[in-house]
Predict the structure.
Amino acid sequence: NLQPDVLYFDDTVVGEHEIMLSVITNTGDAELILYENPGDVGVPQFTASYIDANGEPITGVVRLAPDEFVRMQVKFAPDDSVGFSALIDVPNNDTPAIILAQGDGITAEEMVPVIAINPVVLDFGDVEGGQTATGSVLVSNVGRSDLIINDLNFVGAPWHSVTAEFRNEIGELVPLDVTIAPNDYRLLYLTFT
C-alpha cells in the first residue's frame, strides 16, 4: 500500500529543491520485499530513496513484516522553469507499485504573491447618520508565495468611518497581521458608519 501514490510538489525555484514523503505499508500477511532503492527514476529532476525513522537513507533490500512500513523520500530539484513529471517504480515481491510525481520549476521572479479581492467594489448603499452597514470581501492569494497584510488604508471622504477585521473560516477574529498562503483566502469584514 502506497500513501500517497501521487505527489504534487509546490512550485519550486530552479536550483532549489522540495521533498515529499510517501509511506509504503505491508498490508498483506506475508513479508513484503522492496528489492532496490528507486534512486534514479529516469527523470533527473526527481530522485527517490527509502529512509528510516530518523530520516537517514536505507541502502539495499528493505524487508517489511505484515503491518510494518517504510517511508520513501522523493526529492524534486528542477533545472528549468517548466513542468516535470515522473513515474517512480517501487520494485517488490508483490503487485507492481508506482508513484506519480509532478512539479513545476519556476524562476525566483515568479515567486510573488498576487492579491485578488472579490467583490472589487463594496457598496454599502445609503447609510443614515449614526447608523452602520456591514459587508465582506474575499481576499485571496492567487500568487506563488505568501501574501502578508499588515495594514489597511481606506480611500474616501473624511466623514466616512470604515473599520475592518479579518476572520477565519469558522468566524474567529484574526489579527490584522495576516499571512495568506498561495491558493488560500481570508474573509475581510467591513463596517461603515
